[in-house]
Write a structure and sequence with these properties.
single chain; 94 residues; mainly alpha; Arc Repressor Mutant, subunit A; 3-stranded antiparallel β-sheet; elongated
Length: 94
């Protein structure tokens, strides 16, 4: 049964992810979580909204568009593939 407020274990089952992945993403601020003392809790409606918004943000088309732009930019600036990957990661997560 899916509850309105979920534990890390329940969320992992709901999202079909490993529980350690949930901890890591929550710690990094990539999954909306609430700290209650030393425990994490997740509101189902917030998680569902986060999934909806996240799926709209980085569609396959947008990812490919970003990749194409980055490759062209790298070519113009003489950057290597490793530099490109670092720039994309930095842009996406910072």
């Amino acid at each position: 049964m899916i509850r309105e407020v979920m534990t890390t274990e329940q969320l992992a089952k709901y999202l079909q992810l490993d529980e350690q992945t949930i901890y890591r993403k929550a710690r990094a601020g990539q999954i909306p979580a609430v700290h209650i003392g030393k425990t994490l809790r997740f509101k189902k409606d917030v998680i569902d909204g986060w999934l909806r918004i996240s799926s709209l943000r980085w569609t396959t088309k947008k990812r490919q568009s970003l990749r194409n732009w980055a490759e062209e930019f790298a070519k113009e600036k003489g950057l290597k593939e490793g530099d490109l990957e670092k720039a994309i990661f930095k842009r996406r997560y910072h």
